């Protein structure tokens, strides 16, 4: 079993004791991403849609660093402070992903790091 730590400057740096992603035998476990701007490490402004887009952009950057794309994600977990944003997640996600979509769970949570309104983590499969 080969274990590779994935790291990219194109996504926010870890704000705790974890890696952006870990790749083991073609399976990539992407850590949770919140809507932080990679360069400033500040939360994105502009409301829920801007936050959701920033999270997908961050996940995409980590996926690319691991040798894949968002299309290689097989499982996506979405954590929302406001479940009213469920439909908005669907709308934005349809712009970032092609059919067939990955398996997914959306969970309402009481709070997220740094006061974010959304966090997502994922599992991806790549052949390289």
Considering DSSP H and I runs of 4 or more, what fraction of the residues is helical? 10-25%
Which spans of ≥5 residues are poorly predicted at pLDDT below 50?
none
The CATH topology? 60s Ribosomal Protein L30, Chain: A
Give the terminus-to-terminus CA distance: 14 Å
Annotation field: number of helices: 2
Give the mean pLDDT: 97
Structural class designation: alpha+beta
Radius of gyration: 14 Å
Looking across the biggest beta sheet, what order are the strands in?
1-2-3-6-4-5
Strand content: 25-35%
The total strand number stands at 6
Instruction: Tell me about the largest β-sheet.
Output: 6 strands, mixed
> Which sequence of SSEs, written as H and E, runs from N to C?
EEEHEHEE
Mind telling me which CATH architecture this is? 2-Layer Sandwich
Given this structure, which CATH class is correct? Alpha Beta
Any idea what the shape is? globular
Tally of distinct domains: 1
CATH superfamily: RutC-like
Relevant terms:
128 residues; alpha+beta; 60s Ribosomal Protein L30, Chain: A; six-stranded mixed β-sheet; 2 helices; 29% strand; globular
Written account of the structure:
With 128 residues, the protein is of the alpha+beta class. 23% of the residues lie in helices and 29% in strands. A 6-stranded mixed beta sheet has the order 1-2-3-6-4-5, covered by helices on one side. The radius of gyration is 14 Å and the shape is globular. The chain starts with a strand and ends with a strand.
Helices and strands in order, then pairings?
Layout: E1 3-6, E2 21-24, E3 27-33, H1 48-65, E4 73-80, H2 86-96, E5 103-108, E6 118-125
Parallel strand pairs: 4-5
Antiparallel strand pairs: 1-2, 2-3, 3-6, 4-6
Helix pairs in contact: 1-2
């Amino acid at each position: 079993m080969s274990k590779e730590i994935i790291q990219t400057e194109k996504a926010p740096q870890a704000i705790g004791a974890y890696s952006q992603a870990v790749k083991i035998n073609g399976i990539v476990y992407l850590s949770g991403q919140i809507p932080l701007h990679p360069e400033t490490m500040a939360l994105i402004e502009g409301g829920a849609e801007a936050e959701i887009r920033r999270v997908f952009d961050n996940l995409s950057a980590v996926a690319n660093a691991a040798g894949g794309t968002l299309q290689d994600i097989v499982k996506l977990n979405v954590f929302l402070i406001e479940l009213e944003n469920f439909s908005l997640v669907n709308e934005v996600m349809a712009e970032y992903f092609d059919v067939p979509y990955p398996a997914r769970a959306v969970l309402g949570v009481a709070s997220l790091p740094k006061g974010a309104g959304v966090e997502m983590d994922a599992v991806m499969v790549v052949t390289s």
